[in-house]
Amino acid sequence: MGPSTEDIEAKLAAFVDGELDAAGRDDIEKHLLANPQHRKLLDDLMRGRALLRDLPREGAPPEILDSIQGHLERRLLLDEESAAVAGRRGSGGLRRFMAVAAVLMLTATLGLVIYSVLPSGKTGGDLAAALERSESAASTDAMPAPTETRVARSDARPSATDADVRDRAIAAATDAIRGAAGGTAGGEFARMAEPDVAHPAVPDAALAMGGGAVDEVAPVIVLATDDRAATERDLSAVLLDNRVVYEQVALPALGARRFADAGAREEAGESIFVAKKITRAQYQAIEQALQSPARARKQAVAQATQQQYQAFRQGYGVAKDELGATDAAKSGIGGVLAKEDAATSAEGQAAQQMGAAARPNGGKITGVAMDSAKSAASQPADVIASGDKLKVEFPGMMQSNVGGPQTVEVGADGSIQIAPLEPIAVAGLTTDQVQQKLAGLFGEGKVSPSGPIVVERELSENEALGKEAEPLTDVVIVVRSSNFEEAAPATQPAGEMGLPSAAPATAPATPATSSTAPSSYAPSTQPGN
Amino acid sequence: MSAARSGDRGAFGQIVVRYQDRLFTAVLRLVGDHDDARELTQEAFTRALMSLDNFRGDAQPYTWLFRIAMNLAISRLRKASRRRTFSLDAPMNGNGRSTGADDQASSLVDRVSNARADAPDVTAERREARQQVLAALGRLDGEYRAILVMRDIEGFDYQQMAEVLDLPLGTLKSRLFRARLALRDELKGYMQPKT
């Protein structure tokens, strides 16, 4: 058995290096005599070897020695220090371990909150459809239907610095969304918002960056798009669909606030907010407000009761005496309202010209948001009972005759007193029935109003918040985009906006802790009170 | 080295002064980039300092240092090769590797050879030869490059190389032969007699 290829190659290498023994050299020389073409090859190898050996030695950069000297000095100092603190080394190590553990835990929990994900395929054109679906759902006393843009919370605990883990979290969240898609329409979000002991709680400290902790099980909405305009549209639609209040929607007073590090994250293409999931009634109110002509909305605010006014003022950040301005930009109305005002100014003027007849309730738009909230909450609320307050107006009638508009309270006997009329029994009737009853009374007399009599029932604050008294649950919103050229509009700190602390005692497991500021939206009475 | 091991930090400083040029040059030939070579040489000395206690007296100090540096360099080369993208238009040699403009080869030529272009004792022909061999070296696989650097530039003997590379002697020599063949292939255009 002859030598292997490796043996031959090894012998040739040694021949080139001149380190082959005499017997080996003789073998190769014999071969080269018989195969002169191979001599050229070995000559080339020797020449290459010579060329390599001719390469010059380079001088090391001075930074190398400087760096090593620095290491040596630090090491010397550390040695001295470590000798001085040798007795404390054990406890120090424990502290370091605890500190590292705390940082890791914080990272993991932040990752849990932030990097749940859902890709949004929704476009702005779907907003109207989303609203329609929500309206339809409300009419059947169901929550707004979820859209294909999902709300989810990942079960994974990704790290903010690990793209692979983050991708897995995204996949997990997507799967969760798909899994929930077959559930009850509109129920997905609610389920996500419910406390779930199976999931690790998010420590308050991890989310206290915005000045207050969010709910321990705060769901996360993540919108990932590459277009800012599309993102804003999608965000509005998604939040409306899921009844989440966000500054871009309408009512920052309900709780949208930003994490303190949002600015830094915006540079990385992410904006993080903490918002509030609201009640169905509130959602309907916002929806109604958004769909109303801006001018009508101003009138609604201008004619609202004090409590309603307070709510709107907080919601829109506008003073009552500013509402008469024709230029919304001058009025101080912020965000969406200002934009919508500009967009719908023509519509608003048309509505104004059409007057009361243009409104579905046949008259004024007093508390339009509250009325819509009432109708959405439950129809039985329209039935008048003792203690209710009715707003009545007799168009064209002299103040001395009836006066108006005026607010009258339904007495314990179920009647209202409108001077100079006799007490009128209204308990058990609807506002329409009361309206007909009043029209009949005047029809019998010599003096009649020039237009339809307006009868409206004022909602209690609790009703405005919604009969179901669902807690306002914190929601973390992450808007992620790589192509945002400008930062998202800033949100005022919660405390400065007088945000409500609307956390009914009926849901202590999901307290809204974003603010302790008093608000007219904070229910003074709970359902059943 | 024994003084350094016994805690004499100044002794380690002397080791750095003594071997830094040689080690830096070897690493530079391996990685082909001046900045990478400086960084890796620093890292090698630092790791050596941290692991002085692991140094066995049966090896030469430079061999020990070189082994640390070479492992760092090869790791860097592997990462670089994973990142490298090859042009579909670039001509391929017999080994399936691109013979077009290679980043590392270009870097070798630009950073090393050009840096010495002004040396008065270097003739134009010699300078051309160095540029050619540096470019050819830069185009070789990392393993072949390491073997050639150790043997033909650093002058390690077979036994030292076998220890550093953890290879049997026969295998080591065989690979050395193949590495030289590969270098010859890369230098074929330069070595062919000009007509």
Question: What are the defining features of this structure?
Answer:
heterodimer; A: 529 residues; alpha+beta; 4 domains; five-stranded mixed β-sheet; three-stranded antiparallel β-sheet; 19 helices; 44% helix; 8% strand; disordered C terminus; B: 195 residues; Rna Polymerase Sigma Factor, Chain: A; Arc Repressor Mutant, subunit A; 2 domains
Textual characterization of the structure:
The complex is a heterodimer of chains A (529) and B (195). Helix content of chain A is 44%, strand content 8%. Chain A is an alpha+beta fold and 529 residues long. Chain A is rod-shaped and about 135 Å long. With 195 residues, chain B is mainly alpha-helical. Chain B folds into two domains: 84 residues, Rna Polymerase Sigma Factor, Chain: A; 105 residues, Winged helix-like DNA-binding domain superfamily/Winged helix DNA-binding domain (Arc Repressor Mutant, subunit A), CATH 1.10.10.10. Chain B contains ten helices and no strands. In chain B, helix 2 runs antiparallel to helix 3. The interface between A and B is large, with 39 and 52 residues.
| Order of helix and strand elements from N to C terminus of chain B | HHHHHHHHHH
What would CATH call the architecture of the largest domain in chain B? Answer: Orthogonal Bundle
Main sheet summary of chain B: none
What is the CATH class designation of the largest domain in chain B? Mainly Alpha
Poorly predicted sequence stretches spanning 5 or more consecutive residues of chain B: 83-118
Strand segment tally of chain A: 10
Number of beta-strand segments of chain B? 0
Query: What is the mean predicted local confidence, pLDDT of chain B?
Result: 75
Number of domains of chain A: 4
Number of helices of chain B: 10
Helix content of chain B: 55-70%
Number of helical stretches of at least 4 residues of chain A: 19
- Percent of sequence in beta strands of chain A: 5-15%
Report the radius of gyration of chain A as a whole number of Å: 37 Å
